[in-house]
Amino acid sequence: xxxxxxxxxxxxxxxxxxxxxxxxxxxxxxxxxxxxxxxxxxxxxxxxxxxxxxxxxxxxxxxxxxxxxxxxxxxxxxxxxxxxxxxxxxxxxxxxxxxxxxxxxxxxxxxx
Amino acid sequence: xxxxxxxxxxxxxxxxxxxxxxxxxxxxxxxxxxxxxxxxxxxxxxxxxxxxxxxxxxxxxxxxxxxxxxxxxxxxxxxxxxxxxxxxxxxxxxxxxxxxxxxxxxxxxxxxxxx
Lengths: 112, 115
Hints:
The complex is a heterodimer. By secondary structure, chain A is mainly beta. Chain A is 0% helix and 50% strand. In chain A, strands 2, 4, 5, 6, 9, 10 and 11 form a seven-stranded mixed β-sheet that branches. Chain A is globular and about 40 Å long. In chain A, 37% of the residues are buried. By secondary structure, chain B is an all-beta fold. Chain B contains no helices and twelve strands. Chain B is globular. Classes of the chains: A mainly beta, B mainly beta. Chains A and B meet through strand 4, strand 5, strand 9 and strand 10 of A and strand 5 and strand 6 of B.
């Protein structure tokens, strides 16, 4: 089945550690996105990539980094510079502007 | 800059009654508009979209939405609510002007259907 897979579903991080969230899609989509979801704030864009080996900062990129070495994969690293990383992280992909985005099931990151 | 507003954080509807979840938007060009639904601890699922053409758009699970350009609105509707419709609903917009590739989401409306 085609789809977009995020792993892990739950992740716990100690303060000062970097962690990487995985996002893989087999939909042959060019564009991929990372969003952060906090209660009452909707979805905020962290990074997006329209093509392999290229990505742009979204609205809240500070403290995060990404790579896009393969079309299928768009991992997100939450660095120790991110001051409040506890949140629900969603990855999405799409083929183009007029098409709907497909979302993964999300990763809930908790700093302990 | 593009933006989208969902003025109601919470909407309660009795089962069997019609439901409406409101969305207004602001863009500099023409909008692409989307509705998504989210169940607890899950990703977003696509419901419907407006790109061009007929202002009334029909989508999944019996939902529909009407694009109103003069009022810059894209309200989500369903004639008869089900308890299973209870979820968090997001409206999203993309400006078709070149350079505005990002999809902007509203803050979400929690819909509760009361049995």
